[in-house]
Specification:
This protein is mainly α. It has one domain (about 5-140). The protein is built from nine helices and no strands. The protein has helices spanning about 5-15, 20-25, 35-40, 45-50, 55-70, 75-95, 100-105, 115-120, 125-140. Helix 2 (about 20-25) packs parallel to helix 9 (about 125-140) and helix 6 (about 75-95) crosses helix 9 (about 125-140).
Length: about 140
């Protein structure tokens, strides 16, 4: 495990969500201070708090945008490149885990009923989410981030 992966997992264990853990370990490298990275990624954990797209994936896509995102209206080539890198990440993550959907990755929907409590009781945040955070960082690193 790389030091960046270790730091992301440590951030996750320290109380940040999966999106925050991934986004924040790359943010300074791409010109975004850590505090802002933590703030903008906060609502993405738990699949946008709805069991949808995994927060580790969302955090990684924010990193891709920081490096490749379009910021000039006419720069459609940059937008296309960002989209391509995003699709590449999603394909690699999906090949490794079968899906990018939080509730499918966990086998439980933490946004419904007592799903979060059940996930905590089953230690899913440590046994599954740790791996997802580590793998999201690893994939980004393999892609050159």
């Amino acid at each position: 495990m790389s030091s960046t992966q270790d730091l992301a997992v440590s951030n996750f264990h320290g109380g940040f969500n999966c999106a925050q853990a991934v986004c924040s370990v790359f943010s300074d490298k791409y010109g975004l201070d850590k505090e802002t990275a933590l703030k903008i990624s906060c609502g993405l954990g738990g699949g946008f708090r709805s069991g949808e797209v995994c927060g580790a994936v969302s955090g990684a896509i924010l990193v891709i945008g920081l490096k490749h995102g379009q910021y000039i209206t006419e720069d459609t080539a940059t937008k296309a490149n960002c989209y391509d890198r995003t699709e590449e990440f999603i394909d690699l993550f999906t090949k490794k885990h079968g899906t990018i959907i939080c509730r499918e990755l966990l086998g439980i929907d933490t946004s419904k009923g007592d799903g979060r409590k059940q996930a905590q009781e089953r230690n899913l945040f440590r046994t599954i989410c740790d791996v997802l955070v580590k793998d999201a960082v690893s994939i980004l690193e393999d892609m050159g981030y």
